[in-house]
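Appendix C: a fully annotated inverse folding record. The material below is reproduced so that readers can follow the format used throughout the book. The structure is listed first as tokens, followed by the designed sequence.
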């Protein structure tokens, strides 16, 4: 069984990918949406990497593991996600094996959340 590492991506790329998905209101195949929206500016490897990374981040959000960085939107099926999560998704190591499908690829949850915390802005007053 061969092991692979998904390349890190720039924060600009992960924001562009998220914007492409938002513009489609989540309709259609995400891989096709991202390919059409990003292929003229990014390599195929970068588009694939951002697709894997957004999917792995989505798994953490949907599992309810990122409550400190997400907010429900009244009467909407989606959540607002803090930018720290996108920055963590861009850089957290992401590995998979030849036996895994995209649905199986996941960040190490503890490492991802540690990185999200590091990427978070400090709020409050002392």
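Designed amino acids, in order:
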């Amino acid at each position: 069984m061969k092991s692979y590492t998904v390349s890190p991506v720039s924060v600009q790329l992960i924001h562009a990918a998220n914007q492409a998905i938002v513009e489609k209101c989540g309709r259609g195949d995400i891989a096709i949406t991202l390919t059409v929206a990003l292929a003229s500016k990014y390599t195929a490897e970068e588009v694939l990497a951002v697709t894997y990374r957004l999917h792995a981040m989505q798994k953490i959000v949907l599992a309810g593991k990122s409550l400190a960085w997400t907010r429900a939107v009244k009467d909407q099926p989606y959540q607002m996600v803090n930018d720290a999560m996108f920055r963590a998704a861009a850089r957290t190591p992401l590995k998979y094996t030849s036996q895994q499908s995209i649905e199986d690829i996941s960040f190490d949850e503890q490492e991802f959340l540690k990185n999200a915390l590091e990427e978070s802005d400090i709020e409050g007053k002392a």
